Structures are given as C-alpha cells and as structure tokens.
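Usage example:
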Amino acid sequence: MAPTNEHVRERLTGKFGDSLTEWGEPHGLLTFTAPREMNLKVLAFLHDEDDLAFRFLTDLTAVHYPDRTGEELCVVYHLHNLTANRRVRLKVHAPVAQPDVFTASMLFSAANWMERETYDFYGVNFIGHPNLKRVLNVDEMDYFPLRKEFPLEDQTRIDKDDEMFGRG
Amino acid sequence: MGRPVRFNIKEKSTRDWGINQASMPEGHMGEGFFATSFDKVVGLARKNSIWPLPFATSCCGIEFMATMASTYDLGRFGAERLGFTPRQCDLLMVMGTIAKKMGPVVRQVYLQMAEPRWVIAVGACASSGGIFDSYSVLQGIDQVVPVDVYVPGCPPRPEAIIDGVLRIQDLIHNDPLRRRNTEPYQALMQSYGIQ
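Running the assembly step on the lines above writes:
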C-alpha cells in the first residue's frame, strides 16, 4: 500500500517524536526539518523501513538563509520511493560558523558528488566524506559562490566601464 | 504554365560571379619554370589550405556547424579538412563559453599545436566572457592563449565567422616565413609564459 503523507508523518513522529519540526506540504511534497545530529538516523529510517522505502536520493543541495542567525545553511535532501512513487523532503540546518553535517554517502552513493557540489558552492563540511574537494569550480577558489554574501561579478576587474553598466 | 519568373532573369556575365583569383607573385618566368622567392609563395599556399581545429563548446559551435555546412560553406576557402587533434592543425577556433576550469585545457591544446599556429576567438564568450560575467567563466581566452582574430557576436552569423577566417587568411598571407624567430612574436609568447 502506498505510504501517504499522513502515514509517513505518523511513522516519523512515532519514531522520532518532537525532534522533527516545521512540517509542511508545499505542492503536495511532505517537508520536515530534523536536527543536524539526527540526519543520518532519519535517512536510514526512511530507507530501511519496508513500508516507507525511500531508497532513491533524488537531490542533495543547500540553501543559504542569511536571516536565520545560528542556522544559516540548510541542507536539503529529496528522497523518492520508486515503487510507490512518493517523495519526501528533509531539511537540516547548520550555522555558517561551523557548517558540519554528517555525510550521507555511506547510505546513498549518489550523495558523494552531490555533497561535493554542496561543499563547493555553500561550504557545508560533510563529516566522513571520502573525498571532499571542489567539483565544478577551480580548486584554488577560496570563497563559496552561492552564499548570498558574495557579489555576482568579480570585484577586482579594472577593465569594465561603469558607464556601460549603469553605475557611472 | 504557372506564374511567370520574376527573379534572376537578368543575364549575368562571369565578371559578376564574385570569383576571387589569387594573383601570381612576381618572379622570373621562363619556358617550363617560374622562379620566385619562397616567402611570396608560401604565404599564398598556407592561407588557402588552413586545417582548422574546431574547439566548439556551446552555441557558437552550432553556428560553426552551419558555417561548415553547404549554405555558408567554409570549405570554399580551403578549410575543408577539420582535424580534431591539435597535432595536425594550424588554426584553433575557440567557439563558445570557456569556464575557468577549462582554461588550462585550452592552453594545453594550444601548446600541443605545431608552429605556425593561429587562434581565432569566435563569439562574445570566447573573446571576453560575453554576458557571463561571473565566478565561473573565463573572461576571454586571451587570458590563457594569444589570440589573432576576435569575431564578435552572440552568436556571430556564419558570414561573420567566414569574415574572421578571411582575416586570418590575410594575416597568414602577410606573415614572414619564420614568424617564430621574430622579436615581437617571442615577446608575446614570453608574456603568456609559453616557450
């Protein structure tokens, strides 16, 4: 029987109780937040239980919320149950001063490169990752481009004419 | 019969076909021989038989495919044989957006080409980064390789690409025979860190 959103929510609160917060269903996709330390436990629970069976990691990415002090970076996992065609989204928050999150690459091999990309663009440090290097950007880059604190253009360029860009 | 023919009805003479003939370099001609100096003939031979290496990365590559196809045939100008290995090619045509991570690759391809070699940057992205002024795009391939001709456009029309190749041909025609030994060329290579 297909696990409906209510069923998934019941099972999760039955196992983890109040530690899962911020429940929502934007566009029908069940979304919830878990504390940082428990991300692997929740992922493993959703993976192993036969009536949940969320065994496919669709996406692993991050969002930067500069206004949530103490929890700026949010790592988002999208899980998919292939047999029942149901999806669920898990969010995990981390402060930007110490953005450590446990790696999901032992559980899902797709997480390997997706976590490297998340590290490359947001600076989230995945503890236990076998090869956490930059992918997609040059290795020498020392900043994290998709965080909202960095300007889009290269500020050190001297050959751009400000007049032409409406700033002169 | 259907409609009468309205277009293309004037008789045109061969003078109007727009055929360019290469003029013969000056030299001494006799019965069965023609003596001239090497550099006059070599430039002519080199320019009409360029072997380009298409380094097509994105949209400009599609325009290049159109240029090589029959409507805007680039093979008319001698560039019929495209080699995809730098070891055999004269002209590196960089067409498309080059990311900062791709810069060393372009440089490596350039270094593998044998002298004499020319580079044409096709499109806005290869010339200056184009509309992508961001953390990931190399703002012009002249940051990594010396470029001879820039073809602006986003993407440039096939006629513009052909115009760029014709300018390269002019450059090749007027180059000295052993360009690599001349001072300004060696200074340019020094500035790029290429031996």
